[in-house]
Amino acid sequence: MTKPPLTLYLAAPRGFCAGVDRAIKIVEMALQKWGAPVYVRHEIVHNKYVVDSLRDKGAVFVEELDECPDDRPVIFSAHGVPKAVPAEAAKREMIYVDATCPLVSKVHIEAARHHENGLQMIMIGHEGHPETIGTMGQLPEGEVLLVETVADVAKVDARDPERLAFVTQTTLSVDDTIDIVAALHARFPKIVGPHKEDICYATTNRQEAVKAMAPKCDAMLVVGAPNSSNSRRLVEVGSKAGCAYSQLVQRAPDIDWRALDGIASIGITAGASAPEELINEVIDAFRDRYEVTVEMVETAVENVEFKVPRVLRVPA
Ligand code: SF4
Fold this sequence. Notes:
Shape: flat
Order of helices and strands: EHEHEEHEHEHEHEHHEHEEHE
EC number: 1.17.7.4
CATH architecture of the largest domain: 3-Layer(aba) Sandwich
Cofactor: [4Fe-4S] cluster
Keywords: 4Fe-4S, Iron, Iron-sulfur, Isoprene biosynthesis, Metal-binding, Oxidoreductase
Number of domains: 3
Number of helices: 10
Largest sheet: 5 strands, parallel
CATH class of the largest domain: Alpha Beta
Bound molecules: iron/sulfur cluster
Strand order of the largest sheet: 10-9-11-1-12
InterPro entries: LytB/IspH (IPR003451)
Helix content: 25-40%
Binding site for isopentenyl diphosphate: 46, 79, 129, 228-230, 273
CATH superfamily of the largest domain: 4-hydroxy-3-methylbut-2-enyl diphosphate reductase, catalytic domain
CATH topology of the largest domain: Cobalt-precorrin-4 Transmethylase, domain 1
């Protein structure tokens, strides 16, 4: 039977970012250095496939430090942790390694600097996301006010409206955040913040590629996990940019083929924590059913790399 033709647009950049790559390497190095088990507080990156393959090598994933024994190393995930977590690990004299993405650590430093200068902090982020919890946890409880939407800005109860600063989660929608930042500036003209926002290069670049790709596609699939903030933002960006059927899939078996009936083109991208193997698995599933012509939609070339410490240093 002849297969129907399909143009498969492939976004570039897509998938793994430098922070995710570094965090995974840190777990692998820890397993080499200390042997199994090595504990990891929270999914090292939000991807089940990555977590399962590290688990097979001897990593044990837990949500809280009190689930780890004192005598095994623990790694903190790429999303960052509240200050109280390494403090507790140090108190228990545990070996711990911080795999927080350097771009998240940069936001932690910004927040601490503004706090030292006596400014009250506002964080633009998603409630309950580990990165938001980690960044807010850099300062004493109650010192950071969370804003999730433009509507939230009107509800901010500032100690002194003239002495405010803001930081953002790194994986937000660029466009939504521009609106929230504008609302903050309109209500608090003296608010201090980063030049644009703290959204990282990987999030920005993946959203840009989706914006370029979405109008060409009959449907779009984002390979990523439901708890991956940047993957979910790609789905939203795809819908807003003109591809009404934009869906998240973790793996090829998740594809709803019935919903894709009759399409002539598909767009494929992946969140920053989705490995290329899974993207290839999805592409192969389309090749099985269609005569696929791949067209790259490249909007940026990335060559960011974060150094992984050659020797994992144990904090004093
Ligand atoms: S998405 Fe951005 S902030 Fe998050 S790990 Fe990747 S580079 Fe770092």
